[in-house]
Task: inverse folding
DNA sequence: AAGTCGGGGAC
DNA sequence: GTCCCAGACTT
């Protein structure tokens, strides 16, 4: 039985708001995106924080804002430079969508981030959570910002046993937040819920004895805080066998490839590589040689195996056999010739940074 | 509703 | 090894 208003009978909304907000104002972490309420900086931080921990984001946020301090600066930047600033953060479509949205704000909204749900929610990469976060934190508008923290905290506070992994669960929690949110300080309320989830109401072994709202917490009263939230497991990533080569010529140049503009690691650079299959008559090394010839018209003598790289994604695992090789001719233009120094101007996925490092050390 | 899309830290 | 993180988009 998950009728929110039913659960709120006897629940002191005002006291809950004050206990949460007072705790947040006293204990909140000093984070770089909390220095002001600039909607652009709030926006950038919220995109970076999607599925990414605070400690990981901090250095990226600081350097990103230094490089692109304003909407104008980000709108006018080259995508290559923007991707480089995101290198290693993952989910790279986040920053490509962010730049597209920032360009729209510059052109359509005169450089002012919209302060209403309708226009804000239409921007690329701004979903239900980010929309609510920007409205509440930058503009102090009482809209829910339901992320993983909020679903965990509220599931315990109100004893909600819905599976939070299901898409429809978020709407239930938004409904709850509309009832609970402080209209005077929605910014501190929303951030307080997330801060509580990050510092106190953690996934495993929550620190209930330190919790500022434990007397409002249904799960604590019932002693089931460790059972909540309910979250179904996702399936395991699928392994994929790859072969890659660090390709060079006799003048010290390297040859790299730009990935397609859609899909996995879109628009990032990589060492030439191909998926290979086992138990055929051909070795990985032979399959890679034939691929380089057919795809890039590159005549290459590959080295023996330098080593292997394993890289785990959310939904797949790359097992990469790494080779090096000297090109004997001029390959197709789809391979870009660069010097070793120019490597650092290109954004590579971490898996291919591992390959570069392995080659440098072998 | 389920799959795609990164990477790293905590346990 | 496992889980999960200040989620959004596509199909």
Result:
């Amino acid at each position: 039985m998950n009728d929110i208003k039913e659960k709120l009978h006897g629940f002191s909304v005002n006291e809950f708001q004050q206990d949460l907000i007072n705790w947040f104002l006293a204990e909140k972490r000093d984070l770089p995106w909390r220095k002001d309420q600039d909607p652009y900086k709030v926006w950038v931080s919220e995109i970076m924080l999607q599925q990414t921990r605070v400690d990981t984001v901090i250095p990226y946020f600081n350097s990103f804002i230094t490089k692109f301090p304003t909407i104008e600066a980000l709108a006018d930047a080259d995508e290559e430079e923007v991707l480089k600033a995101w290198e290693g953060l993952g989910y790279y479509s986040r920053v490509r969508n962010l730049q597209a949205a920032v360009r729209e704000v510059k052109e359509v909204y005169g450089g002012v981030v919209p302060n209403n749900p309708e226009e804000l929610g239409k921007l690329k990469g701004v979903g239900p959570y980010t929309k609510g976060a920007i409205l509440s934190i930058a503009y102090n508008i009482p809209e829910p910002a339901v992320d993983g923290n909020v679903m965990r905290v509220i599931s315990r506070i109100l004893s909600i046993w819905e599976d939070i992994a299901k898409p429809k669960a978020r709407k239930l929690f938004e409904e709850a937040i509309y009832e609970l949110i402080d209209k005077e300080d929605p910014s501190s309320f929303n951030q307080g819920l997330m801060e509580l989830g990050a510092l106190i109401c953690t996934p495993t072994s929550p620190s209930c004895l330190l919790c500022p709202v434990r007397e409002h917490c249904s799960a604590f009263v019932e002693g089931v805080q460790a059972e909540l939230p309910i979250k179904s497991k996702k399936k395991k990533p699928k392994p994929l066998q790859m072969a890659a080569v660090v390709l060079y010529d006799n003048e010290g140049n390297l040859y790299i490839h730009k990935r397609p503009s859609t899909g996995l690691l879109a628009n990032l650079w990589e060492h030439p590589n191909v998926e290979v299959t086992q138990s055929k008559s051909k070795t990985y090394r032979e399959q890679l040689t034939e691929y380089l010839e057919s795809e890039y018209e590159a005549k290459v003598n590959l080295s023996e195996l330098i080593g292997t790289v394993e890289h785990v994604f959310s939904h797949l695992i790359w097992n990469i056999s790494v080779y090096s090789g000297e090109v004997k001719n001029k390959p197709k233009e789809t391979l870009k010739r660069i010097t070793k120094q120019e490597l650092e101007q290109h954004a590579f996925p971490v898996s291919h940074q591992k390959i570069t490092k392995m080659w440098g050390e072998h």
Chain A has two domains: 4-222, 238-361. The mean pLDDT of chain A is 96. Residues 11 and 216 of chain A are 7 Å apart (CA to CA).
